[in-house]
Amino acid sequence: MHTIRRITFYLVLVAGTLLILATMLSLLYNMPYWYIKALDFPRVQLLLGLFACLVLFALVNKGWELPSVLFVLGLVASFVLQARFILPYTPLADEAVETAEPLSVTPARSFSLLVANVWMKNDQTEAFLDLVYESDPDVVLAMETTAWWIERLAPLREIYPHRVLYPQDNTYGMALYSKLPLNNTEVMFLSHQAVPSIHTEVRLPDGSSFMLHAVHPVPPKPSEYPDNVGEEEVALLKVGEMVARNEMPSVVAGDFNDVAWSKTNRLFGMESRLGDVRIGRGLYNTFDATSPVLRWPLDHVYVSGEFSVVDFKKLPDFGSDHFPILVELVLRK
After folding, report:
1. Does the model's pTM come out above 0.85?
2. Parallel, antiparallel, or unpaired: how do β-strands 299-303 and 275-276 relate?
3. What is the pLDDT of residue 104?
4. Is the pLDDT of residue 102 over 60?
5. 10 Å Cβ neighbour count for 108?
6. What percent of the chain has pLDDT over 90?
7. In this predicted structure, what is the pLDDT of residue 322?
8. Residues with Cβ within 8 Å of residue 21, at least 6 apart in sequence
9. Average pLDDT for residues 95-123, to the nearest whole number?
10. What is the rounded radius of gyration, in angstroms, for the C-alpha atoms of the chain?
11. What CA–CA distance (Å, rounded) separates 80 from 82?
């Protein structure tokens, strides 16, 4: 028993020190190394690890000399730092976008949006079609769509008469299907010629309109596809500037390839003055659907102050490495 206690003590000491170091390094936003920025992703996992170390150390530590006290203080400080990032994405925080009162929801000023990264390697197109039919959204945004995927999503043409299709074989293809009319549509390349984004006016049944910006910026790490280190922040901030200049109600949605609490997303929210529908509601981790442990919120919906949220939920897996999300919004008068 004494040996097990001693081994556990040293394991906790090593693990706790690594977790404290990872927490401190994750605060160095301006470092040019992508693997430092990657420490922004597993904050929930680091938070749980720090809590486990605190509990175990309290159980196996025999004396409370200065080194032990300093170690515990480091664990507590790191735990608090990680919790500050996560707390806004729990029901304990105030909602950034208010929930609509049931009596205030006018069908003619409401719409639902399905956001799904279908995964280029995924071949379960029927499962995705069944998901669309069952959830019956007004607008579908599908990402990583290749020409093969577009061909197999052809049945959606019967339901969605308005479409913007830009298939690609580099994981950045996009497809937008809409029951609602689309006007002044543009496909833009904000930071890389191989990474499109869709910008369009959407007209609601009562005649009012809003801007929809569909984006899928590159991840903050090296990729076999576009040379993308540092490009994700450029693309998102350009969208933020576009939204800030436009007086129309706006929605920005897509796979941001970055966690909700990242510096890039926070800068984007401040620049665009949009609210993240996740804040005050939950984490809604959408990636990685293939892993039960390593999951993060990478797919996002940001809206301007004219909108209220009727419903927001994560939908079941359909074979992709991302879970889809469905949001129902109402444009207030």
Report:
1. yes
2. antiparallel
3. 79
4. yes
5. 12
6. 77
7. 98
8. none
9. 94
10. 22
11. 6
List, for residues 159-201, the tens digit of each pLDDT value.
999 999 999 999 999 999 999 999 999 999 988 888 999 999 9
Question: How many residues belong to the chain?
Answer: 333
**Residues 6+ away with beta carbon under 8 Å from 187:** 164, 166, 196, 197, 198, 199
CATH superfamily placement of domain 102-331: Endonuclease/exonuclease/phosphatase (3.60.10.10)
Tokens at 333, concatenated: 């008068």
Domain boundaries, the chain: 2-89, 102-331
Residue 91 tokens, joined? 């029901």
| pLDDT tens-digit readout, 14-49 | 999 999 999 999 998 776 667 788 899 999 999 999
Do 287 and 324 contact (CB within 8 A), yes or no? no
- 302-331 pLDDT per residue, tens: 999 999 999 999 999 999 999 999 999 999
Cα within 13 Å of Cα(10), Cβ side = 5
- For residue 103, the model assigns a pLDDT of 80
CA angle 1, 45, 80 (to 5 degrees): 90
Secondary structure of the chain as H, E, C letters: CHHHHHHHHHHHHHHHHHHHHHHHHCCCCCCCCHHHHHHHCCHHHHHHHHHHHHHHHHHHCCCCCHHHHHHHHHHHHHHHHHHHHHHHHCCCCCCCCCECCHHHCCHHHEEEEEEEECCCCCCCHHHHHHHHHHHCCCEEEEECCCHHHHHHCHHHHHCCCEEEEECCCCCCCEEEEECCCEEEEEEECCCCCCCCEEEEEEECCCCCEEEEEEECCCCCCCCCCCCCCCHHHHHHHHHHHHHHHCCCCEEEEEECCCCCCCHHHHHHHHHHCCEECCCCCCCCCCECCCCCCCCECCEEEEECCCEEEEEEEECCCCCCCECCEEEEEEECC
- d(CA 215, CA 311) in angstroms, rounded, equals 22
Q: What is the largest CA-CA distance in the chain?
A: 75
Q: Are 249 and 304 in contact (CB under 8 A)?
A: yes
